[in-house]
Amino acid sequence: MEINVKESTIIRPAHETPEQCLQISDLDMLVPTVHAPGVYFYRRPSDSSNFFEAGLLKEALNNVLVRFYPMAGRLGRDENGVIHIQCNGEGALFVVAETSCVIDDFGEFESGLKLLNFVPNVDYSSNDISSYPLLLAQVRGLPDDQASKLLIPINGRSRLNPELPSGYIGNVLFTGTSIALSGDILSEPLNFTAERIHKALMRMDDEYLKSALAYLKQQPDLSVLKRGAHTFKCPNVNVSNLFHMPIYDANFGSGRPLFFRPIVLFDGLTHILPGPSNDGSLYLVTNLETRYIPLFKKSFYEIFAS
């Protein structure tokens, strides 16, 4: 697949925005310092003369960054090395590119590696995090005694009391966990596993979440708790439920997207998404080592065929 970059530019807010430093939360300190890439696909309408016209998109981004001005900032560190957001209006990276391939070349969009070609490159090996734009646009065979951990990201916005404002853009993700032995999962009825997961979710109430925040405040070095590839790999799995997110409402003037695919960077990361047809169907994206995929498919379809 050949991709030709036609233009790469920084889009700044249309108006002056507050200049300040925003301290990130302890929850932010637990997640990898990388972007969360995803790719939207749109099919050109037959009567569209300005399909994804770059000038219109730049103007829209220009205006949106006024309200969401932290996304036009950069990361920095204070004197103690703690990361914060420098709201300095430096802008978001906007890239215009062309490719010789068409949507039908991607089949059912299984390969996340192919889709990585559509994501702007960022050198995460650099220690200078201030160079990162915050916004860029463009199952397994285990022994029976093997403990397997299911990690479930929980949105704490509505679980905390009082609730956070609807426009709050900070990270409020807590992680619920359910642990069981592989042999128990395979031998028990499915409802046993479902009940185990349900209990893990229900205990994540206001008291529990505030206790978790207090625990993080007591830690001298949050980097030792940072999640990453080592957290999710076999025998563990992380499942994010994005079914209720309005993913297919991303209309930039040319209709609803044909398809959206998150690009999963770590082994064991799984996303549950709404289907593109808006009929209540689900779409599951998971990242597994090739040797585990046949067993995952077998187990997955056996569950839903029973």
UniProtKB/TrEMBL annotation:
InterPro entries (UniProt xref): CAT-like_dom_sf, Plant_Fungal_Acyltransferase
GO molecular function terms noted in the UniProt entry: acyltransferase activity, transferring groups other than amino-acyl groups
Membrane spanning residue stretches: none
Entry annotated with the keyword Transferase: yes
Family: Belongs to the plant acyltransferase family.
Protein known as: Shikimate O-hydroxycinnamoyltransferase
Signal peptide as annotated in the record: none
Gene source species: Citrus unshiu (Satsuma mandarin)
Any one Pfam family match given in the protein's UniProt record, by short name: Transferase
Keywords of the record: Acyltransferase, Transferase
